[in-house]
Amino acid sequence: MKKIEPCTLVIFGAGGNLSRRKLLPALFRLEMAKRLPDNVTILGCDIALRQHEEWLDWVAGVLRPIYPQGIDEAALQRFCARLHYFATPLGDDAAYLRLQQLLENESSEFHPNVMYYMSVRPSEFPKIVEKLGGVGLLKEKNGWRRLVIEKPFGYDLLSAQTLQASLYRHVNEPQIYRIDHYLGKGTVQKGRADYYEGAGALRDMIQSHLLQLLALVAMEPPVTMSAEHLRDEKVKALKAIRPITQNSVHAHAFRGQYTSGTIDGVAVPGYLEEPGVAEDSTTETYAALKLFVDNWRWAGVPFYLRTGKRMAETCSTICIRFKNPPQDLLKHARHGPPQPNWIMLGIQPNDCLKMEMQVKVPGLDLHTRTISLDATYRKEGDEDYDAYAGLLLDVMQGDHSLFLRIDEVETAWRVVDPVLKVWSMERDFINGYQAGSWGPRGTYRLFDRDDQFWRHSLNPEGAELQAY
Ligand SMILES: NC(=O)c1ccc[n+]([C@@H]2O[C@H](COP(=O)([O-])OP(=O)(O)OC[C@H]3O[C@@H](n4cnc5c(N)ncnc54)[C@H](OP(=O)(O)O)[C@@H]3O)[C@@H](O)[C@H]2O)c1
């Protein structure tokens, strides 16, 4: 276990949604597990003016409801002792000078290793970095300075490069930790339509999270588990993705938007009826891509990525379908087409590993059936932490393995940019799909062969090639 260095964690946007739902609860879990050294302090920054006591009450009000059986009062007391608040009202540029005084004056109670977490809207990232840089708060003098940038990193290749250039004015690459954690679920339902309307499923999920998963599946084993070796291999896999030209967008990409439907027996509105969504919006709530990784190992193997909101089931999975053997020796012993073998990784809601194989049925005749091996490796009593707890510790330890390097981000944008361009020009029509279904009709046209289709779920019946 690597040592966690003492540090000051400054959260910009500490009063916002991400901080409330993820960051503060994750930090409190670490407190309960005694994983935070004594000299870690947490300075919440937000634009609202709040007194110290008010801030402690606010944080306790966020944490208590998470433990309806009663919160660990001793841990809460220890946690509150780490908390501080500092207001950075909009337009008050002198606030950053006061922040510099607070953090860096000789009698400062804050440790000089500082990690700045940008939990604010993306348009604020460069502004805050510019102000921090302007008062010298990003210079590594007597301690390190690390910058955690939330997703999305840009909204296309050009804007990502512009954002990067603005960061490089004040920090260098090893100081930057670009988070890419899958939290997309429920953004629309939670009144964040303003964000989603401008982003859509391709940007929100595929450019970041799904291409990361593709890179992890397709990459060669790294030389070591060091962050740079790992990221080198991921970039190689991403760079090998065959570019989608604007002319071939329709053969490689499909988008859709949910209409009203039923989920778990409850009627739900369509996307256009959601609050904050424009009545003629063509923002996609479903996106699917077919990609090829043109390298020695994966030549000719299609990779299908899809993401959708309001689907029949909420889950994240990776399903690897083996090719059928070149000669079907059992074709006379079977009714119907051959069934493939599968390896499947469940990511959400449960992490698990499953295999499905065709085996001979014992007995005198030559019949086959599917057997399923469920290698769920989680045991009762295993520690269960939200990913943010691990990521926050990684930053405190200076471990970049799970954070994106700029060349990964740029390569991922290069993959989706042509699709975004074509879709942004086609504003007249978008395919609909009923909420609670498995997505729009018509995605079959992405598949090269009749026996290929989405694997809808990890259950055996998910293997049936059904459209809905
Ligand atoms: N929430 C999620 O589930 C989620 C998931 C993935 C990624 N993210 C990313 O995380 C970031 C934060 O998202 P969020 O949902 O927490 O947004 P949010 O609810 O709008 O929270 C941002 C907070 O920052 C405050 N703020 C605005 N400008 C500021 C400034 N210059 N200095 C300090 N505080 C400032 C806001 O105050 P006002 O409200 O008064 O403006 C608000 O309290 C975004 O980049 C988002 O893309 C969020």
Question: Secondary-structure blueprint of this entry?
Answer:
Layout: E1 7-12, H1 17-32, E2 40-46, H2 52-63, H3 73-80, E3 83-87, H4 94-104, E4 114-118, H5 125-134, E5 145-149, H6 157-168, E6 176-178, H7 193-218, H8 227-239, H9 249-252, E7 253-259, E8 261-263, E9 266-268, E10 286-292, E11 302-308, E12 316-321, E13 342-348, E14 352-360, E15 368-374, H10 387-397, H11 406-425, E16 431-434
Helix pairs in contact: 1-10, 6-11, 7-8, 7-11, 8-11
The structure holds NADP nicotinamide-adenine-dinucleotide phosphate (NAP).
Task: Write a structural description.
By secondary structure, this protein is an alpha/beta fold. It has two domains: 7-150, NAD(P)-binding Rossmann-like Domain (Rossmann fold, 3-Layer(aba) Sandwich), CATH 3.40.50; 193-463, Dihydrodipicolinate Reductase, domain 2. Helices cover 31% and strands 19% of the residues. It has eleven helices and 16 strands. Helix 7 packs across helix 11 and helix 8 (227-239) packs parallel to helix 11. The two termini are 46 Å apart. NADP nicotinamide-adenine-dinucleotide phosphate (NAP) binds at residues 12-13, 15-19, 21, 45-47, 88, 119-122, 124, 128, 150-151, 183.
